[in-house]
Amino acid sequence: MAVEPMSGTTAPARRLLVVTAVAAERDAVAAGLAAALPPDAVATAPPLPAAVVGAGAENGQRPAAPALRATVLAGGVGPAAAAAATAAALARAQAAGDPYDLVVGAGIAGGFAPAAPVGAVAVASAITAADLGAQTPDGFVPVAELGFGTSRHLPPPRLGRAVADALAAAYGPVLTVSTVTGSAERAAELAGRHPGAVAEAMEGFGVAEAAAAAGVPVLEIRTVSNAVGPRDRAAWRIGEALAALTAAFGGLPAVLEGEAHHG
């Protein structure tokens, strides 16, 4: 069972929450947004939910209504940490009367070749918990098929497609795993169970769970540092992927503004 998007589009995004795993990703995202937005429109937060602050009500400052204000939060590694940090940020903003309009899970990721090679941008058509379920003698059974909830969230399709097109990104399912793939066999298994998958990371589903609980639309944007499969650290291009993350988020505000005009 998938959680359907709230609609084919979203309301104009005036307040954006971006959740990454670690500070290097947070800083890369913030650099891109800061290059595209007015001064004081971008705030960052450390990976401590109790210390979440953002532009606007959470830090006692209300700038003069730029078109978009963004908070970029390093929420920690893995879906549980990401969900907790996202939920805390959303709750604080809601309580302050300055809620977020859109949540984006972001960072670097492994890419499924050939759809998303190293250095590519990947945008999620679906945010899927790929290893949430049960392993049986007949294979893996997703948690939804066990009757215990959902293992997939769907971003607003028109917005997701518009972002992917504008960023020249691979567009398809992005998988969330708690254990990163380290073999060709598991990479093939995941690709077989999730046709069209473009990337694998560790936080997107947690971010999406928190956003869904708060009724806020969600996207996932990743840039590829390595291929999904056997771990070859010498082949990883983390610097290249972080630079691509900055470039992608430098282009995101224009897409959101364009969709606002069409919404």
From TrEMBL:
Nucleoside phosphorylase domain sequence ranges: 69-231
Cellular component aspect of the GO annotation: cytosol
Record's keyword annotation contains Hydrolase: yes
Domain of life according to the entry: Bacteria
A Pfam entry, by short name: PNP_UDP_1
Pathway per the UniProt entry: Quinol/quinone metabolism; menaquinone biosynthesis
Catalytic activity: futalosine + H2O = dehypoxanthine futalosine + hypoxanthine
Protein name per its UniProtKB record: Futalosine hydrolase
Species this protein is from: Actinacidiphila reveromycinica
Gene name of this polypeptide: mqnB
